[in-house]
TrEMBL record:
It comes from [Actinomadura] parvosata subsp. kistnae. The keyword Kinase does not apply. Residues 9-283 form the Tryptophan synthase beta chain-like PALP domain. Keywords: Pyridoxal phosphate. One of its GO terms (biological process) is alpha-amino acid metabolic process. Coiled coil: none annotated. Pfam families: PALP (PF00291). This is Pyridoxal-5'-phosphate-dependent protein subunit beta. Its cofactor is pyridoxal 5'-phosphate.
């Protein structure tokens, strides 16, 4: 099998209806956990590797080095293994066997660095090709696939590299679609204040507690001009929404998917308050067994200082209001 076959687009991921009970607004969940490597980051990793192979930047036997963590590292390790590449990822924070294991099981090597902002410099010091997932946006097939399934009024994604919202926004504008793009941003992340203040290089310097999204700086791949709204989401609200999503759909999603769901439900509430109808799509970034030991575990939430109860109560009200 050649690299073109390994990096070819797969089957479309499904849309899951979130049961709001009618009332003129639909909420659909684009389930990216059905990607072969289990998350939304699969698309971005495929695009990065495809560009590198086409431009002759990597070949079988080479080493790929990235600065990231969580699902992005797993997706890149998945492709590296199938392309015959060595893979080294520099992750932020202290060593964690739970975080390293999914990458190591795919043949990758994990190195941990503190403070979190030091991962970029540390990765560039390692010999190998550095795809830089936080750099310029790369085209991928998410928008075309999604709009072939439904014509939404809003699409909501979590704030990670910024690339997903940028590529969605660029495609929507090129095609003349009326859909708007919202970014859900957790605590400590730089995207909401940077977008609000219109400061492209805004930085908080603080790590996010929500794995997979939230950045201590506004990354180069983020395009504020292609985003219609950034919604700040409390970390406890992200956890509460992830638990509700699991309860409703059976999908054990990570807290990052909860962040996006919370923002989507806020949009539903605003649309209903204005008497609008339409469709909101929220991206499910992942769904697997790993979150069961984190955001779905009361002990983990307590250790993180997250009081989920009040947010669970508000979510029930939001869903009830949405259901009419």
């Amino acid at each position: 099998m050649g690299w073109e076959d390994v990096l070819a687009a797969g089957e479309p991921t499904p849309l899951v209806e979130f049961p709001l009970g009618g009332g003129g607004v639909r909420l659909l969940l684009k389930d990216e956990s059905k990607q072969p490597s289990g998350s939304l980051r699969h698309r971005h990793a495929r695009a990065l590797f495809r560009r590198a192979m086409r431009e002759g930047l990597i070949a079988e036997g080479d080493t790929v080095v990235e600065a990231t963590g969580g699902n992005a590292a797993v997706a890149q390790a998945w492709f590296a293994r199938r392309l015959g590449l060595s893979y080294v990822v520099v992750m932020p924070g202290e060593y964690s066997a739970a975080r390293a294991r999914p990458v190591e099981e795919l043949g990758g090597e994990c190195r941990f660095v503190t403070p979190p902002v030091a991962i970029y410099e540390a990765a560039r010091k390692i010999e190998g090709h550095f795809p830089d997932q936080f750099g310029r946006a790369v085209e991928h097939d998410l928008a075309e696939e999604l709009f072939g399934q439904v014509r939404p009024d809003w699409v909501v994604s979590g704030a990670a590299t910024g690339v997903t919202s940028a590529t969605l926004g660029a495609w929507i504008r090129r095609q003349g679609e009326r859909c708007r793009v919202a970014v859900a941003d957790p605590e400590n992340s730089a995207y909401f204040p940077g977008w609000t203040l219109d400061v492209a290089d805004y930085a908080t310097g603080m790590p996010s507690r929500i794995e997979g999204i939230g950045r201590p700086r506004v990354e180069p791949g983020f395009r504020a001009d292609l985003v219609d709204l950034v919604v700040p989401v409390a970390d406890a609200a992200s956890v509460a929404a992830a638990r509700l999503l699991r309860e409703v759909t059976g999908l054990a999603v990570g807290a990052s998917s909860g962040t996006a769901l919370w923002a989507a439900l806020e949009l539903v509430e605003r649309m209903r308050a204005r008497g609008e109808s339409g469709t909101v799509v929220s991206l499910i970034g992942d769904a697997n067994e790993r979150p069961l030991a984190t955001c779905h575990d009361d002990g983990w939430a307590k250790a993180k200082g997250l009081d989920v109860g009040p947010h669970e109560e508000r979510l029930r009200r939001l869903v009830d209001v949405a259901g009419g």
